[in-house]
Amino acid sequence: MYRILSKIYPKSIREGYKNILLYNNIKTAPERFIGFVLVFGLFLGLAIALDFSYLFELPLILTWIAIFILIELVVYFYLWMNVEVKTKFIEKVLPDALQLTASNLRAGLTVDKALLLSTRPEFGPLGDEINRLGKEVTTGKSIEEALIGMAKRNRSEKLNKAILLINSGLRAGGELALLLEQTSKNIRNQQIIEQRIRSNVLMYVIFIFFAISVGAPVLFGLSTYLVETMANIFQSVEIPKTTVASALPINFTQVNISPDFIFKFALLSLISSSIMGGLILGLINKGKEKEGIKYIPILAILSVGIFLLVRYIIQTLLGGLLTI
Questions:
Q1: DSSP assignment of 278-293, as one string?
Q2: Which residues contact 57 (CB under 8 A, 6 or more apart)?
Q3: How many CB atoms lie within 10 A of CB 213?
Q4: Is 0.70 surpassed by the pTM of this model?
Q5: 10 Å Cβ neighbour count for 174?
Q6: Kind and range of the H or E element at 26?
Q7: pLDDT in the model for residue 274
């Protein structure tokens, strides 16, 4: 049943799920996994939508669709973020693994044994991949095929390039140990340059984070409370229609925008700013918009929380004074 339901998704989404499951080393068939996520999202979304429609008087169908889409996005991006964490860790320890492999090659070991003996517990996912490579070579697969399979299971470009160099060295019969040492050195230099770039753009990241999480909520809290106060004052003030009143330079008119609309508009603006700000932070800090997805919940919680806190403080301090 799950395999049939998975065909509801477009082909591009199914292919994306297949790649993500491969990178996460999830052995479940992609069609079954996609179908299960679909059914799980429908039933969980319906349960949440029923509660929301009852508590907040929201339309059931639209709420169900919105929550279902949100659940699907959360599952997808959770798996994707696991892939990113794995990729970063592999690229971090890759220079050490290449250096150890080169040292083992200089000691006279073959390529497969040099790779296996270079594994360390602190290498984590990379160590697991190397151990799996050793098992595949032991069962009869060639070292080149095992390395290509290892590259397909990981999203790291640096690892893929290192594997390409190893296979090229194996086919050419050159000095593979020297090649691995130089590759390890180049990866280290690249990591140092990336760290310097991140330190240079840190000020921009701090400014954007502060503006979205603190500056905007404080201004929205002050402005929304001011609008509500002015609307209440104008509703209670009655100016008689006399010649003196008509000669005043101030013209009092009815406020057509309700305070409730202003409050909802402020919340929507803060959430939208958090989403866009998180993507911008990812682009500036890591070079990819997707890297900023993890910042979105933090920005949204901080901005909405500070917004509500500012409104509460102002109402507590000035509410009694304005009432008088």
A1: HHHHHHHHHS-GGGGT
A2: none
A3: 23
A4: yes
A5: 11
A6: none
A7: 92
Instruction: List the Cα angle 11/30/65 in 5-degree steps.
Output: 60
Q: Per-domain residue ranges for the chain?
A: 2-86, 93-198, 201-235+256-317
Q: Distance between CA atoms of 262 and 266, rounded to whole angstroms? A: 6
Distance of CA 1 to the CA centre of its chain: 31
What pLDDT is recorded for position 299? 92
Amino acid at 302: L
Q: How far apart are CA 23 and CA 199, in angstroms?
A: 30
Predicted pLDDT at 306:
93
User: How far apart (Å, rounded) are the C-alpha atoms in residues 155 and 175?
Assistant: 27
Give me the sign of the Cα torsion angle 5, 7, 12, 17. positive
Token pair listed for 276: 């866009």
* Mean pLDDT in order along the chain per 10 residues (324 residues): 78 84 85 88 91 82 90 89 90 91 88 86 89 86 89 89 86 82 90 83 87 91 83 63 54 65 88 91 82 87 92 79 53
Q: Tell me the one-letter amino acid at 100.
A: L
